[in-house]
Amino acid sequence: MHALYIGLDVHKTSIAVAVAFAGDGPVRLEGSCSSGIDRFTVVLGQLLRKYGVERDQVRLCYEAGPCGFVLARHLRRLGYTIDVVAPSLIPKKSGERVKTDRRDARKLARLLRAGELTAVHIPAAADEVIRDLCRARTDAMDDHMRSRQRLSALLLRNGFHYQGKSPWTPAPLRYLRELVLQDPVQKLVLEEYLQGIDRAGERVERLEEQMRLRLESWDRRPLVEALQGLRGFQLVASMIVASEIGDFSRFDHPRPVMAYLGLVPSEHSSSDRRRQGAITQCGNSHVRWILVEAAHHYRLPPKVSKELSKRQEGLSREVRELSWRAQHRLHRRFMRLTMRGVHYNR
Fold first, then answer.
1. Given CA atoms 251, 256, 257, 261 in this order, what sign does their dihedral have?
2. In this structure, are 246 and 150 located in the same domain?
3. Beta strands 58-63 and 81-85, pairing class
4. Distance separating alpha carbons of residues 91 and 117, to the nearest angstrom
5. Torsions phi, psi for 101 (to 5 deg)
6. Which parts of the chain register pLDDT below 70?
7. How much is the pLDDT for 38?
């Protein structure tokens, strides 16, 4: 039981502060201050002295958002109890039509006191560094794919269509550089697109090299190596899953993990009628995407390929057996769904 509950509405330049006392008293708005961590720490100390409470008697919260977890980690190092809450799970009245920073801060303080807020996981600083690196690699890969699509659209508009199986290997790219178009400006545009593809590919390679280097000193390296022992998981996929989810032990069962990732079916049931729909897609979209991509490998019959065998070198017998059982179970599940007429992309 805490004596003081503080709701923070955190923005890029300001933080609105409201406090609620234990019990059912009114919520007080304390104003706003600069979002600088040092300045806010001073204001928070003044607030505690004003009400005569100690740090261990205070509980704070703010919504997860673009400002990240830097403030929460800093306050935890100072000995405060602070939660970062999920915005989508904050109770909201259907009649609420006015939203301001002050109202949000008061609402957070009141709901925190009532215990109606859901806290999200605050990653360690090292995990967040790897997570940013993995997301930067995904962004670079998206840019690479978009550059290729733009070039393909340009060629198609001008009546060129590569007939080979691998249009992005060195040989087709050399062919494109020697291609003659009707207007010199179009040739300039073609060369700009080719230069963009080269730059995007080099950016992906640089980021992947950094991922390999940082993995050597990351404390979650054993988890990443164990994940690479599974079919469909190489370095990038394994590091994305490990950095986004973090400590798997905070889940007591696989079902909460799937719910956390939005991979459970939605449901709208009433009385004796049960209706389930598509997956909820509520949660971490980045790791959900990579898991869906990895799951496609299990459409194929179980097999330990040369690449998978190489990745499993040095892993324990338990991990290798788990990988083999997963192949059989997931492939069997895929075949059952296929026989029921379910499309493989669903």
1. negative
2. no
3. parallel
4. 8
5. -60, -40
6. 346
7. 93
